[in-house]
Write a structure and sequence with these properties.
Length: about 190
């Protein structure tokens, strides 16, 4: 559906631009925006490689393992029904830990594995369990201790202090995660 909406925006914008006599402005805007997009992507590539290297060092140094030790007791409270199942808790902890450290690409396979393991113990295969919904909310809220992607984008766009968003990001993502869990708890009574 979103593809149709974007097509309509682009098509109508192009027609209006040509009919209003702004065809040359339209074509120069297209060229300038594609050029700036390529420059942004190239600068992001270098910055993302740097952050991926830093995150890999954090992973190899055991920082992710230490973070998972802290997370396990919290997740046992949140996911009471599945907390004793190591097949579920192992990939779940790795998913959340990876997301917290800004390793979104590494988090995805762990998230998929977690949902597959939850589905194996699901009694009603056609309906998601409350724990599945909670995990999805936590994964979507994605508590960020180090928002590497946003820092990289800000640096690539010339921000004088790209990391200034770290504390607001932590506060916002924790608030969103807590509110999401509260809403899950409220809604699970009705559904």
């Amino acid at each position: 559906m979103i593809n149709y909406i974007w097509f309509i925006f682009i098509f109508v914008g192009t027609i209006v631009g040509v009919l209003s006599g702004n065809g040359s402005t339209l074509s120069s805007s297209i060229i300038n925006s594609t050029e700036s997009s390529v420059k942004l992507m190239i600068s992001l590539l270098g910055i993302m490689c740097l952050w991926c290297g830093v995150m890999r060092i954090a992973e190899k140094s055991g920082l992710t393992d230490k973070l998972s030790i802290v997370l396990r007791p919290i997740l046992k409270i949140v996911f009471k029904d599945i907390s004793k199942n190591n097949n579920v808790m192992g990939p779940m902890i790795m998913n959340i830990t990876s997301n917290m450290l800004g390793l979104g690409n590494a988090a995805t396979p762990f998230g998929i594995k977690t949902m597959e393991e939850m589905q194996k113990i699901n009694k009603k295969k056609s309906t998601a369990t409350n724990d599945m919904a909670k995990f999805l909310v936590i994964n979507a809220a994605c508590i960020q201790l180090l928002p590497t992607t946003i820092i990289s984008i800000r640096a690539a766009c010339g921000s004088s202090n790209p990391a200034i968003i770290v504390i607001p990001t932590i506060v916002t993502s924790v608030t969103v995660a807590i509110m999401g869990l509260i809403y899950c708890k409220i809604l699970q009574r009705h559904f």
